[in-house]
Write a structure and sequence with these properties.
Blueprint lengths: L5 E7 L5 E7 L5 E4 L33 H17 L1 H19 L5 E4 L10 E6 L4 H12 L4 E3 L4 H6 L7 E5 L6 H15 L3
Antiparallel strand pairs: 1-2, 2-3, 4-5, 5-7, 6-7
Helix pairs in contact: 2-5, 3-5
Length: about 200
Amino acid sequence: MHEYPVSVNLTSCSSSPVFSVWFHSSASKQTQVPHEELRSRGTGSLSHTELTPSFMPDRFEAGTLNIPGIYGLSAALSFLAETGITNILEHELQLTQTFLDGLQTMENIHICGHTDIQNRAPVVALQVRGRDQAEAAFRLDRDYHIQSRVGLHCAPSAHQTLNTYPEGSIRFSFGHWNTVEEVYYCLHAIEEICNGI
């Protein structure tokens, strides 16, 4: 069995998309394979024809719409309009500042980045000194039911800049439905992990 890299190139936007398929051999020689127009059937708006509609948005939206997704988006936009984005951000940043203040009292914690809420999102990355970051995050989840994101966060260069490479960091984020009590509970859990409890 041979594996070949394949390039697919959209070469036309007529009534049916036309694709050119190229196979690349190890000698960097390209071979074009004969192709047919690809057609979809039963688009929902012109079910009586075998051709994809040429008009928008049906041209690229064949099939059933994501009705639950549309209702969910509508509810989310209504929530944002009623609550106010500024109010949501203020609450999240208050929680973030409370978290940062608590972390700064702990000797074995390194906060990655700014230690205040100026020019930041409600996200805090930290390292527990003297501990494996993945083990600390695992304990937060297992023992305290606190979920975080640990590792290099698909951004090794950012971690190199922060001097957290290759260990990574533990990342926390706060949302509108988090409470200050939950922040204090999280701080308590981190302190116990730092103290080896």
